[in-house]
Write a structure and sequence with these properties.
Length: 158
């Protein structure tokens, strides 16, 4: 993704570029021994080349904005008539999918923290659930009381 230099500072286009170059020079100079502290392996030529190329190519610098990796495949979870925590899966939001054939005809229920009122999820539906850190904060069971295991799915969103 490219971020316009103009979004970094305000003013006219040439002033934006000049201000950014001056700001970068102020950061790079101390790091390469031009005053201040710092240190490390900084190549001012490479930074200058990148800035010059960005200015020539329309005033934008490349910025890595790739989101954190989120598992793309749903996790199968077997649900019976007894309460059980979902598998330990680090996340803050997930979907609980009760849409898989042939179990899409059986409602399930879920609750937070092993206590409190349960929410019934109708057959063939998906609910988005927020948790503080892990899907195992939620317990699930079949709503019809039958002991036979059915498979639902957990899809991590965040």
């Amino acid at each position: 993704m490219l971020v316009p230099l103009g979004s970094a500072v305000s003013g006219s286009e040439p002033a934006n570029r000049d201000a950014l170059v001056a700001a970068l020079a102020g950061i790079v100079s101390p790091a390469v021994g031009g005053g201040g502290g710092g240190g490390g392996d900084v190549d001012p030529g490479a930074i200058g080349s990148a800035v010059n190329a960005a200015i020539r190519d329309g005033g934008a610098l490349p910025v890595d904005t790739a989101p954190a990796a989120i598992p793309t495949d749903p996790i199968d979870v077997t649900v019976t008539n007894t309460w059980a925590a979902l598998p330990s899966t680090a996340c803050t939001r997930f979907e609980l999918l009760n849409e898989r054939w042939p179990t899409d005809e059986i409602p399930i229920r879920y609750r937070r923290g092993g206590a409190g009122a349960a929410r019934v999820q109708p057959a063939g539906k998906a609910d988005t659930i927020d948790v503080s850190a892990n899907a195992n904060e939620i317990q699930v069971s079949r709503a019809d009381g039958v002991a036979t295991g059915i498979v639902v799915q957990l899809q991590v969103l965040a």
